[in-house]
Amino acid sequence: MQLITSFDLKKSEYLSKDRFISYHHQLRLIFSLGNKVNHILEIGIYNSLLTEVLKRNGYEVTTADIDPHLNPDITLDLAADFSLPEDKFDAIVLFQVLEHLPYEQSEKALRKLAQATNKYLVISLPQNTLYMSMQVRVSDVPRSRYLSLQIPKFWSTKPISDKHYWEVGLKGYPKKRILTSIINAGLTIKKEFIDPVNPYHYFLVLEKTISKN
Questions:
Q1: What burial class does residue 131 get, using C-beta atoms within 10 Å of its C-beta: 0-12 exposed, 13-18 middle, 19+ buried?
Q2: Residue 32: pLDDT band by 50, 70, 90 thresholds?
Q3: How many CA atoms lie within 13 A of 14 on its CB side?
Q4: What is the pTM of this model?
Q5: Closest Cα partner for 170 from 154, 191, 146?
């Protein structure tokens, strides 16, 4: 698993319009978990923007990342035989992270994260589709409406990013396979969400079903 600081990204370029749309939904989904969720583990931090907003909203946040240059609270390699403290985190969140591991390793990591969280796991995964989206917005109406068509690229094996081992919708990685892996990890799917403006990010709110031994 490569360090994000080795990708030669400029932070100004990383913070694109689509990225901010993703941040909006990350926060919205975390807020929707309710007042009983207070201590959050964020895995994969890069610029720490999500962490800072969560802290300003009263959450206790622990950060984890494979890259020590980002100064995380926990240096964590999801591809290794890692362990996390149990009975500590009300929710574990990781957005656009698991696809940086070979699929079998991401399944193992998902199982370990399901064991570690008290209740919730909130994730996003890249979804590789051909899509067309049309926005309908009327003055004095607060919410937009969308007409959206998406076709998974089931004939292709090439992720959009060359840093990804796999993406949802590609040949060998249909949505059904990903959802089966989630269920086998001891999680139930509480909510799924795709923003038609940026359907590349597929959000899932997952609830723990396995019991601790």
A1: middle
A2: very high
A3: 13
A4: 0.87
A5: 154
